[in-house]
Design brief:
With 476 residues, this protein is mainly α. The protein contains 20 helices and no strands. The longest helix is centred in the middle third of the chain and has 38 residues.
Amino acid sequence: MVFRQLAKDSAIYGGADLVSKTINFFTFPFIAKALSPESFGFLELILTSTALLGVMGNFGLNNSLQRFYWDPEVQPSDRKELVSSGLIAQVLILSVLLVLAAGICLVFFPEVGTAYAFTWLGVFAALLLMAANQWTQYLLDVIRLQFRPWSFLTVSMISRVLSAVLGLIAVVYLGKGIDGLLGAQAVVVILVLPVALFIVKNEFSIASFSKKWAKELLQYGYPFIFSALAYWIFTSQDRWMLASFSSVEEVGIYSVSFRFASVILFVSAAFGQAWSPVAMKIRADHPESYPKIYGDVLMILIFGMALIAGVIGLFSGEIIHLLMGEEYLKSALPMVLLAFAIVFQASQQITGIGISLEKRTILFAHLSWVTTVINFGLNWILIPQYGALGASWATAISYLFLTGSYFFFTQRFHPIKISYTRLTLILAMTFAVIFLSFWFYKPELFAVTILIKIGLIFAFLGLGLSIIPLKNMKNV
């Protein structure tokens, strides 16, 4: 059953993410305290820079792999060539980028070690860590596509937990600073690579490299570079514009709102990891009915995510009051909008599927940049007057526009079958909860208000269950 498999796999993938983030949460204060503020700032700059380099080196090959692995036109005998060609292409691209980046650093920043409290060992370790993470993630995607969530959990946990623990030891107990932290993490990820390769050994060999498949994967994947760059700008410009047009305090208010709303992002990421391989497998196994299944999953996803966002939105005032105090009460209303912004973001995993199936990935890049411009304009208009709340409106509207655009082109090029009446009802309920979250906003704990909000949540749940097509999913 598709729904049961999605739920089980999402729980496993989400569990790996939850454990690793919990460990990082508890190790972070010790590492930050052991490093000086200046050193910690340079560490963040190094990681941000190498992450951007990783986006270029990835070349969208992970997206390409997920698109073609379960394609009905790809024979099972061809999958070894597909996997091998993508990994080898990524290794070659990243290797060239590593050499170029290291050479540029050596030529233009010869005094980095003496001036900024870390040495070239840290820089090279950061570059190597970035590359090894990209290769490991590619192999993890292969494992997901083989529907082996427990193997995924094993590799992911070994990599993330050991990286956090050894990094903590290197910085706090050995006093090796940035060099030690990055070096320890790079060593762990490199040692995990053979484990991941062993798990997918039947799907990889150097002799299976195919120029044809490498070209196909690169042609499909390269637009994701521009999409990722646009997304990077889109998700960071609100904070910079808040600082410029409003105040640093508003940046803090907005950041607190986003941290709480990110609970939904965690659920969305877990679903996405489970959905991407299942989506292509559904198309291969159900060539006549898969468009209907996609439409049903879209409605169930929006309803489930909106239910979680509704709980956070309706109780935003109480949550902030209890956990953060009166000083951060202004974070409550932006949290409502950011929670539902993530609902719209999560839906993109299905609304954009037709674009992916038709290999029109350049549209992802075009629409991402259009959304970035729209987001900039909305921030420009709303932030000076409404501060963090204005930035939240801009984010929510931008994500709604992006998923709506994806859905428009999916229905144009490779339509999914969906009941527009049911979809309209679910969306109307979603917007009603946003309105009610503002209407019933109360930072104080009043029993009557809390009972009303609980009633609204159960009403949303009951109405939603009567609308979404759960029976259709059970029959798959």
